[in-house]
Design brief:
Layout lengths: L7 E5 L4 H12 L3 E6 L2 H13 L4 E5 L5 H15 L4 E4 L20 H26 L4 E6 L12 H21 L4 E8 L5 H7 L17 H12 L10 E4 L7
Helix pairs in contact: 1-2, 1-7, 3-4, 4-5
This protein binds nicotinamide-adenine-dinucleotide.
C-alpha cells in the first residue's frame, strides 16, 4: 500500500520547482494535494498533472505574504478535503525576485530586505499559524522549506540567509510548543537544486554544480523524497529537526 493513503496535504509554491515535484511525489504516495501558488495557472497545471496520474488535487491561489489570503487558502483546503494532515511550506523567492541579486548587505535597500522577509519568513509564519489552528488537536505534520542558507552564510544574500535562519527558528519553536498536540514540525535544507529559481539567480553558473563534494546540482525529486518521508508516519519521532540534502556541501 502507499505511504500516504487516505492522507491529505497542502503545498505552497506548488506551481514550480521543488513545490511541484513534492506535490507530485505526495500524490504518488496516495495523498490528496491542495496545490497553492501565487500564480493560479501554475497551481492548476500541477493539479492537472496529479489528476492525469489518477490522484486527487485542488488548486488554490494565494500569496503567502498576505494574511487574508493565507486564511482563505486554509479554509478552502478544509472545505475541499475536510482536514489536512501534511503541510509543506515551500513558497519562497530568490535574490532576483527581491531585487537583491549580487548586492552585499550595505547595498540592500530596505524595500529589498522587506520583500524577502515578507515572503520567505513572514509567509512561513502566517502559513504555520493558520495550519496549526486548523489542525487543532488532530495533529499532523508541517515541513518548512529552509535552505543551506538557513545554516550558513551565503555571499550577497544577507536577507535570504536571515529569512531562512528565521524559518529554522520558527520550526524549532513550533516543534516544542505543539509536540504534545501531535503536530510534528521539521525543516528541510536543500543545497543547490536545479529549479527555475536557481537558474534565475545564478544564470546557471557552472561553478554552482561544483560547490559540493558530489560535483553536481541536486534534483527536485531528491528534496521531494525527504518531504514525503517527513510527512509520513515513518518519521513519527522526528520533530523540530533539520534535514539537509546538499550533496555534502555543509560537511566540506
Ligand atoms: P521556484 O521559483 O521554482 O518555485 C517557487 C514557487 O513559489 C513559484 O511557483 C512561485 O510562484 C511561488 N511563490 C513565490 N512567492 C510566492 C508567494 N508569495 N505566495 C505564493 N507562492 C509564491 O523555486 P524553487 O527553487 O522550487 O524554491 C522553492 C523553495 O525552495 C524556496 O523556499 C527556496 O528558497 C527553497 N530552496 C531552493 C533551493 C534551490 O537550489 N532551488 C535551495 C534551497 C532552498
Amino acid at each position: 500500500s502507499k505511504l500516504l493513503e487516505e492522507k491529505t496535504s497542502l503545498v505552497t509554491g506548488a506551481g514550480s520547482g521543488i513545490g511541484r515535484a513534492s506535490a507530485l511525489a505526495l500524490a504518488r504516495e496516495g495523498a490528496a494535494v491542495c496545490a497553492v501558488d501565487r500564480h493560479i495557472e501554475a497551481a492548476q497545471e500541477t493539479a492537472e498533472e496529479i489528476r492525469r496520474l489518477g490522484g486527487r488535487a485542488h488548486a488554490v491561489r494565494a500569496d503567502v505574504a498576505v494574511e487574508q489570503e493565507v486564511k482563505a487558502m486554509i479554509s478552502e483546503a478544509m472545505d475541499e478535503f475536510g482536514r489536512v494532515d501534511c503541510y509543506f511550506n515551500n513558497a519562497g523567492i530568490g535574490t532576483v525576485e527581491s531585487n537583491s541579486r549580487g548586492k552585499s548587505l550595505a547595498q540592500l535597500e530596505l524595500a529589498d530586505w522587506q520583500r524577502m522577509i515578507d515572503v520567505n519568513l513572514t509567509g512561513v509564519f502566517l502559513c504555520m499559524k493558520y495550519e496549526i489552528l486548523a489542525m487543532g488537536e488532530k495533529g499532523g505534520s508541517i515541513v518548512n522549506n529552509a535552505s543551506i542558507g538557513g545554516l550558513q552564510g551565503l555571499k550577497n544574500a544577507a536577507a535570504y540567509t536571515a529569512a531562512k535562519h528565521g524559518v529554522i527558528g520558527l520550526t524549532k519553536s513550533a516543534a516544542i510548543e505543539y509536540g504534545e498536540s501531535g503536530i510534528r514540525v521539521n525543516a528541510v535544507c536543500p543545497g543547490h537544486i536545479l529549479t527555475p529559481l536557481i537558474m534565475k539567480s545564478s544564470n546557471l553558473n557552472p561553478d554552482l554544480a561544483r560547490m559540493n563534494p558530489m560535483n553536481r546540482l541536486g534534483t527536485m525529486e531528491e528534496i521531494a523524497e525527504l518531504v514525503v518521508w517527513l510527512s509520513s508516519s515513518r518519521a513519527s519521532f522526528s520533530n523540530g529537526a533539520v534535514f539537509v540534502a546538499d550533496g555534502g556541501r555543509l560537511a566540506a
